[in-house]
């Protein structure tokens, strides 16, 4: 639910009492009324037009208009993102703009921006084409210049050779060559342009094959990537010139160029014209560059102007669209002059809603006021808990299992304490707890800044549960002090240890043991236990028995809460035939075990509790001998065993037959439960757990359901108690892992007396502690604590088959978008 930290009172035990309300709103004030409801955020509208399609509803045209404006705003946002702008955050607060004016303004801005983009694209394409053209002119002119220079040199060499080696035939041949008719000489044509470098080899091969080798291709690499005019992407290209003879060869060459995406550009073999063309192209490039820069500046100014108002426009369009969606949930009055709506609201918000209706009527200058009427219904209302930033994360954990039924006991009240405490039992190390606490302080002190930023999925979840993690860290420090572990190292924080060595050398400390010389250590585990030969048996026994005590206590709490649920809903059958036998069954077995644990701790007895519990079932009448902890224990065990046996049929048989009897009486009209009304016009729903109305009562289904429930309770008492032993197992694993990292990494590196090895050891120790103990172990303990609450605790009383109160609220719209 949305945070409600501004409320003066906050009751999390049961959900807020709800009204089903009917609203009759005149047309002229309907829009303003719904807008004020969105600001209030305490009214959930029911859809009275569920049978109609979205296109058949009254305000379909307005929603379409809002959708079109939202599309334009998305277009503006994309353009700003591409240009490197971000919408101004301070623009979300500003004067209200009329929807028609906003629609016209967004249309004008879109047309202007689209026209700018089109002109810029055309100019940029022309600019890129001219750049390529200039490259072709420069590179191809080098071809022709080098070719003409080479031809002139060959001609001079040939003439010199002929004159030096004069013969009888030479003058005749020379005269014949010089007298050749120029019109009979074969003139070669050529095609020039650019082709992608990765295609150049294939381009050359295809030209050769298509013309059967009757072409001459020259290519030169362009050093820097060029922007392709067609695609607009940077690409590496080669300048090419293809010489050919004949019109058919030209047609083939042009087709091959088109197939390879080669851009062709005209060229002349006249050197004078080449220099003139290069000069013209350079001038045009300068003019286009100046024009493009001016256009980009104008476009940037326009986008900056849009950015100042973007957040306000975006929020207004979202609000308008949500208002019209809500108006479509209202039905038309028969006179078609009013809109009729229904919905749920908390009882405490009744006066606020009436004030909103009056204010909307006055602000819209309506002559007719809206009508607010409370309806009577048997429909189950939605569930609404007023939470703040501290309790909202815990409530989300509970709601992930299932939303509470209307006014059912909320486990979140107890989970606020029990969840971090059970986590800490598994995570108990006050050094790790301090690290976790410091990390959460960072999120808490910077929560205003971080709440406005977009975090990753994992960081978003961590930030949302910062107060839960803070409680987990504080409880971990507490249990770590009880376990006396600081990164697995014990400290004498609360006084001197009660134990000491037998001699001055302490040689027999790990074999014979220690002797008690001082008062008992005042708080937590005595530091001398750590490292002693009996450390593991002692801590195992302590944590295992403590896990059973905590588990039985929490399961008893769950069963007690089922009593309060049944009493609140007036269901006496659940009190006498579920709550009572469940309490008897659980406490006859595991309540008795918890009693034995406490008595053994208080008396220091050496009794074997395993033996006591096993032979309580196998031989309840045998003498307990040395395992007897108190007088009358054998008689008490027999009584408790008989009570446990009686509790099973007590749960199984009476309730189905009593439900059948109630159904028959109701069917004959002998038993009715009237709806009760309180002074403030709120109501209590009639709850009937046996049947609904005059539906067919299936006794076999009810009996099978009760049989399954009885088996679940009987087996669950054993399995759930055993499940709490995970507290012992994970605590032991965490302690041993911490001890391994300290002894096998840090102390081992310290023993080498080498600075480099010590630094490496410290780094490995830090990374292992953070990665394994502070991240993986935290997640593991969190999931196990979650399972204990969902399965072992909440299954005792929590149905979780309700539905969440979802009011129409502009604040929720903003959160969803974020």
Features:
single chain; five-stranded antiparallel β-sheet; extended; 13 strands; disordered N terminus; alpha+beta; 60% helix; 818 residues
Overall mean confidence score, pLDDT = 86
The rounded distance between the terminal residues' Cα atoms is 16 Å
Question: What's the number of helices?
Answer: 23
Largest sheet: 5 strands, antiparallel
Name the structural class.
alpha+beta
Q: Indicate the percent of residues in helices.
A: 55-70%
Q: Beta fraction of the residues?
A: 5-15%
- Count of DSSP strands: 13
Per the principal axes of the C-alpha atoms, what is the gross shape?
Answer: extended
Write a compact overview of the structure shown:
The chain is an alpha+beta fold and 818 residues long. The chain has helices at residues 27-40, 60-83, 99-164, 169-178, 200-210, 247-259, 271-327, 350-363, 392-401, 412-427, 430-445, 447-451, 457-464, 466-483, 535-568, 572-603, 609-618, 633-652, 654-667, 699-723, 726-750, 755-793, 810-817, and strands spanning 18-26, 44-46, 189-196, 215-221, 226-227, 234-235, 237-244, 263-265, 331-332, 338-346, 371-375, 499-500, 515-516. Helix 18 packs antiparallel against helix 20.
């Amino acid at each position: 639910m949305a945070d409600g930290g501004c409320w003066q009172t906050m009751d999390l035990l049961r959900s807020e009492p709800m009204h089903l309300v009917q609203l009759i709103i005149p047309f002229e004030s309907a829009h303003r009324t719904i807008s004020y409801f969105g600001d209030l955020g305490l009214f959930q509208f029911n859809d009275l037009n569920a049978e109609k399609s979205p296109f058949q509803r009254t305000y379909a045209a307005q929603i379409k208009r809002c959708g079109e404006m939202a599309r334009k705003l998305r277009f503006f946002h994309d353009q700003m993102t591409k240009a490197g702008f971000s919408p101004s955050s301070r623009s979300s607060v500003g004067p209200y703009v009329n929807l028609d004016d906003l629609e016209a303004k967004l249309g004008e801005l879109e047309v202007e921006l689209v026209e700018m983009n089109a002109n810029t694209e055309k100019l940029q394409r022309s600019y890129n084409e001219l750049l390529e053209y200039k490259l072709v002119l420069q590179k191809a002119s080098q071809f022709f210049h080098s070719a003409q220079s080479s031809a002139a040199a060959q001609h001079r060499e040939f003439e010199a050779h002929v004159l030096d080696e004069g013969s009888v035939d030479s003058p005749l041949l020379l005269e014949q060559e010089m007298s050749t008719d120029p019109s009979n000489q074969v003139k070669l044509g050529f095609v020039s342009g650019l082709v992608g470098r990765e295609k150049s080899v294939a381009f050359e091969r295809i030209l050769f094959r298509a013309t059967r080798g009757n072409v001459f291709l020259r290519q030169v690499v362009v050093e820097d990537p060029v922007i392709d005019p067609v695609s607009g992407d940077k690409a590496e290209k080669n300048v090419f010139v293809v010489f050919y003879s004949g019109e058919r060869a030209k047609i083939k060459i042009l087709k091959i160029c088109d197939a390879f995406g080669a851009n062709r550009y005209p060229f002349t073999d006249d050197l004078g014209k080449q220099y003139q063309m290069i000069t013209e192209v350079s001038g045009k490039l300068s003019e286009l560059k100046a024009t493009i820069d001016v256009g980009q500046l104008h476009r940037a100014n326009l986008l900056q102007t849009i950015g100042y108002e973007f957040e306000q426009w975006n929020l207004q369009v979202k609000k308008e669209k949500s208002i019209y969606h809500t108006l479509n949930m209202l039905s038309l009055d028969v006179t078609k002059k009013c809109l009729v709506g229904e919905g749920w609201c908390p009882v405490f918000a009744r006066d606020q809603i009436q004030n909103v209706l009056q204010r909307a009527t006055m602000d819209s200058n309506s002559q007719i006021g809206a009508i607010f009427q409370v309806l009577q219904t048997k429909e189950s209302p939605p569930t609404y808990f007023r939470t703040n930033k501290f309790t909202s994360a815990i409530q989300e954990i509970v709601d992930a299992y299932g939303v509470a039924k209307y006014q059912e006991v909320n486990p979140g009240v107890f989970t606020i304490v029990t969840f971090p405490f059970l986590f800490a039992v598994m995570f108990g190390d006050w050094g790790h707890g301090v690290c976790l606490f410091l990390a959460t302080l960072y999120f808490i002190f910077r929560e205003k800044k971080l709440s406005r930023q977009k975090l990753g999925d994992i960081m978003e979840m961590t930030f949302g549960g910062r107060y839960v993690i803070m409680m987990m860290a504080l409880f971990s420090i507490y249990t770590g002090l009880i376990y006396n572990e600081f990164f697995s190292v014990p400290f004498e924080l609360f006084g001197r240890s009660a134990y000491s060595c037998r001699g001055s050398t302490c040689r027999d400390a790990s074999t014979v043991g220690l002797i008690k010389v001082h008062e008992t250590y005042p708080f937590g585990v005595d530091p001398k236990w750590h490292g002693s030969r009996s450390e593991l048996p002692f801590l195992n026994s302590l944590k295992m028995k403590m896990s059973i005590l905590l588990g039985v206590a929490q399961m008893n709490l769950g069963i007690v809460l089922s009593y309060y649920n049944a009493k609140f809903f007036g269901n006496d059958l659940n009190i006498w035939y579920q709550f009572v036998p469940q309490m008897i069954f659980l406490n006859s077995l595991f309540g008795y075990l918890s009693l034995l644990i406490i008595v053994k701790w208080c008396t220091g007895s050496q009794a074997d509790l395993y033996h006591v519990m096993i032979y309580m079932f196998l031989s309840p009448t045998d003498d307990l001998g040395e395992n007897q902890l108190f007088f009358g224990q054998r008689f008490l065990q027999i009584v408790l065993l008989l009570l446990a046996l009686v509790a099973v049929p007590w749960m199984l048989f009476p309730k189905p037959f009593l439900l059948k009897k109630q159904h028959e009486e109701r069917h004959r009209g002998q038993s009715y439960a009237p709806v009760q009304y309180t002074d403030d016009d709120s109501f209590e729903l009639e709850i009937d757990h046996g049947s609904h109305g005059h539906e067919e009562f299936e006794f076999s289904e009810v009996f099978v359901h009760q049989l399954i429930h009885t088996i679940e309770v009987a087996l669950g008492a054993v399995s759930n108690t055993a499940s709490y032993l995970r507290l012992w197992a994970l605590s032991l694993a965490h302690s041993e892992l911490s001890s391994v990292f300290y002894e096998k990494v840090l102390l081992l590196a310290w023993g080498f007396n080498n600075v480099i090895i010590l630094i490496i050891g410290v780094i490995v120790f830090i990374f292992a502690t953070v990665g394994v103990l502070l991240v993986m172990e935290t997640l593991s303990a969190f999931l196990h604590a979650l399972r204990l609450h969902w399965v072992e605790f909440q299954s005792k009383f929590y149905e979780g088959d309700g539905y969440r109160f979802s009011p129409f609220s502009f604040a929720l719209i903003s959160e969803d978008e974020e």
